[in-house]
Design brief:
This protein has a two-stranded antiparallel sheet. Helices cover 34% and strands 21% of the residues. It is an alpha+beta fold. It has two helices and two strands. The model has no long low-confidence stretch (mean pLDDT 87).
Length: 95
Amino acid sequence: MEKEKRAFIAIAINKELQQELAGIQKTLQKKITGTISWVKPENIHLTLRFLGHVTDEQLKDIRKIIDGIAKDCKNFNIDMGALGAFPDIVNPHVL
């Protein structure tokens, strides 16, 4: 059986926004304790869709489809708002 990988569709964000979010992360690290896996600033991104476990073959097909869609997309701006959490603020898995 082919090994599966956890995959998601995401948008890379620019270094300036990554650094701004890293600053927020640093502040939160001082206030929140427990076993938390903090993302390195260079890996901060905007997840559009979590795909779950996919095979290498499925990933190849997904990349082909995404590349076809993305070639027609233009740059856009993102404005940051309030901090949110998923699934909820009491038991956050993702900020």
